[in-house]
Write a structure and sequence with these properties.
- The complex is a heterodimer.
- Chain A is globular and about 70 Å long.
- Chain A is an alpha/beta fold.
- In chain A, strand 10, helix 5 (about 155-165) and strand 11 (about 170) form a beta-alpha-beta unit.
- In chain A, the strands form 7 sheets. Chain A has a 5-stranded parallel beta sheet.
- Chain A has 3 domains: about 5-105 and about 245-310, FAD/NAD(P)-binding domain (3-Layer(bba) Sandwich); about 120-240, FAD/NAD(P)-binding domain; about 325-445, FAD/NAD-linked reductase, C-terminal dimerisation domain (Enolase-like, domain 1, 2-Layer Sandwich).
- Chain A starts with a strand and ends with a helix.
- Chain A is built from 12 helices and 25 strands.
- Chain B is mainly alpha-helical.
- Among the domains of chain B are: about 20-75 and about 110-200, no CATH class; about 445-530, Alpha-Beta Plaits (2-Layer Sandwich), CATH 3.30.70.
- Chain B is about 60% helix and about 5% strand.
- In chain B, the strands form 2 sheets. Chain B has a two-stranded antiparallel sheet with strand order 1-2.
- In chain B, a hairpin with a 2-residue loop joins strand 1 (about 385) and strand 2 (about 390).
- In chain B, helix 2 packs across helix 5 (about 125-140), helix 12 packs parallel to helix 14 and helix 12 (about 290-320) packs antiparallel against helix 15.
- The chains are: A alpha/beta, B mainly alpha.
Amino acid sequence: MEHIVIIGNGISGVTAARHIRKLFDKRITIISAETDYFFSRTALMYVYMGHMKFEHTQPYENHFWAKNRIELVRGFVNRVDTENKLLYLDGSRKVPYDKLVIATGSKPNKFGWPGQDLHGVQGLYSKQDLDLLEINAPNKKVCQRAVIVGGGLIGIELAEMLRSRDIPVTFLVRESSFWNGVLPEGESQMINEHITEHHIDLRLATNLKEIKADENGRVKSIIIEETGEELPCQFVGLTAGVSPNVDFLKDSGIELGRGVKVNRFLETNVKDVYAIGDCAEQHEAIGNRRPIEAVWYTGRMMGETLAQTLCGNRIEYKPGHWFNSAKFLDIEYQTYGWVFGARGRKENEAQFHWRHPQEKICLTVAYDKDSQAFLGINTFGIRMRHELFDRWLTEGREVKHVMTHLADANFDPEFFRTYEKDILHAFSEHTGESLTPKKKSLKRIFQSL
Amino acid sequence: MSTYERSMALTGQPPKQMKTSQKLASLLGMSGLFILVLAAFNVEFPASGWWLSASLLAMSAGIIWYSYSTYAGKHKGIKNDGVWFKSISSQGFWGWMAGVALTGFYIVLYFYPEYLGLAEKGGNTGVIALFDPLSKLLSGNPASQWFVYGALYTVAILAFGIKFLWKYRHNRYEIIRTISVMFFQTAFAFLIPEFMARLNGDKLNLPYYDLKNIWPLNYYNFEAYRVKSFISSGDIGLALLIFGIASVFIISPILTFYFGKRWYCSWVCGCGGLAETAGDSFRQLSDKSVKAWNIERWVIHSVLVFVTLTTTAVVYSYLGHDTSKYWLTKSTFLYGVVGLLTLVFGWAMLFKRKQLAKDAQYGAIGYFVIIIALVGMHLYSEEGHIFLFKSGTLRKNYSFLIGSIFSGVIGTGFYPVLGNRVWCRFGCPMAAILGFQQRLFSRFRITTNGGQCISCGNCSTYCEMGIDVRAYAQKGENIVRSSCVGCGICSAVCPRGVLKLENGPLKGRIDSQQVLLGNDVDLMQLVNQK
């Protein structure tokens, strides 16, 4: 029986395994050095905050794997011998494979800061990082101040986690406004305010110069590049992005860039070796996407796609319309289609921004100046219906259509206040054309079902 | 793992640690409870109502102050920090202690009310005497153990309801729903029946009737003594009796079709009301395993069969044979019951079989055969014996096993151990009927938002009914489950805006998918077509 070995038990590898099992009776083995069972990486923060126990982050009960004949091996792959189709695990164990899927995810970036490997300095990615955090920052007595370096999604999550235990946090963000490489200005500004009102010491346009050690090799302070200020702290969180976790493949003959180089079929340069998820790097970017996408949904979609190829139906990886979501402290964020921050914005992209006068609620709609085509939407504090935006993007709707039908797309719980009228009113003023909102219609919403 | 869990246990730190104001608030609440405990141990309080007022006020104020100090200073949003670190909410020492205390209270309440000071012929003592002034004020009668229980129950729903409102103040669905359960408990369960008792006199002889308490939850509603007093109370009584029947066969099916069973379970019902308010701190303790789900389905449906048999037997026992005296006779009634059950069974098996799992089909066939066989036996049994047992015996067993032990002692006593919806999930026959309809014939569903799920598990963890919500959400599949009471907390705790409780067309309501929205359209079509 053909033996498919998957390195990595994250969302990419596990999705691939599940879908292969649905299609074929192949032997499937998943190898992981991190944990015995698949867990949701995005949920680690909730374990530290006491919302969940670690077991709750595991989407499948433990008996699931044996029942579906997915073999789980706990071990670290040191070397891949593609000629003999052998994996060398730590110790002397060898695992042979017929087809190999590399789904090893990412590791936190370290940019060569002095002191970045001291005790009390860590990233937040793995289960081991979570365990380490419980040692480094269990409470505000042990950790009287924490410094977080890097203003992205993990950075703000780490800040929220530490604040849940009343640990004072200083948050160093390189950019002039939080995540403004991605978010348009108004949104980024609103998140700045929200971070501050959560009593997080937000330092914008601020870089880390150096981490200083005490006599035991533990962090005792950091130095800020711009001002030279020394901040005493007991913990430093490095959250300046992640990069593919592919060091173990250096001498394998598998082509590497920053990640494992793959074509549109998720195949590497070596026959029968594939890569998916965070660690895969497309030769050429797909549409507006980046060649490496360290996103949960991308990992899952690649897993869904690769399973087909491995089961004889060789198909290209063709992701649909971009979507994503996150939560910034108390504010939920969703995006459908493309809305660019100042940095990536293209010539033809026009934006309309609306913000609630009191509440931390806002949205930005991007559309084509010339064709008036709807390009994408970012919402903060309003939930939107994925299905509907996906449909509108496929149909190439004009922005006017989207704005007048926003009530259909609202996905907030029942009885929530809606703002479609206010939004459309502001949009009408923005464009100079008076528009009337359409009432929510179940018929339109569920038509495609 | 063990290293940090040890270190956790040793240090009292936020969010586990209580603030001073929270400690003082707890003390105030406990002092109110202490008055009741002293009364229970026969410490004499003047029966003027002052001590009772002081006790109820202290308990309410304690709870409200505690909530204020916990939530008021914080930003609105999800407030689950430290839930699994606190002993009371994570099946720790204080959780077990609370469980033992509550269980003890229920055992005394149901089986040894004399320890609470109940006296058969007036002259209550102890806690019950303490409640006499309030009872006399409302109904004119001295208190019973049930009055004491009802009053405390209402206070708990109101005070913890305010806590819940504070906790979820960002969520209008939760706010409106909670105000609804607080209203129905206070007005329908507590005040109206007391006022009805006051109206009783020569012409009126109404039984104690909580109008929203529908059969089969209110399993005794059609017993001889109640039906007699309804009928003897003129038009009002008759209207109430008809309302009782209509609520089972007309009102509830219509509302469940349009809104799902939530219209009852998490908006109106008293058991649900207590679970949602006082029980909110324990919702995460429900067992999410497939095994628990299997046990749930067998147990709850068996209770439904049990209550159907019991009620049929009880009603049968007091009907006559002679059609000239009253149109409804023993045999007409039995044939009616058999006809109705056959219709429901036939409809489900003919039109909805595809939506039933294998074991559900076997179970349905099994139950149906048993009921029909037992009902058929009435032809061969003596008077009063249908279904092999005397109706009185059946009734007594049901009331003891289900009415007292299951719904009270286990259902509420075990809140801090098994979660706040043990009764609703495993025992309530009303929930079973509503759930059956909700699963097969209702517009309600929890819509999963395309491909947005990140499998984090907050929804499953905080589902009080033990539904593994994530298992559906991560497949992009709507959640259509019998047991869902529509509390809306899964949607509230979801960090990515994936879940929405809504009512929509029946078509496409159950939409199992393999490849989720956001991926290649061709692949989705290829894989998702069946």
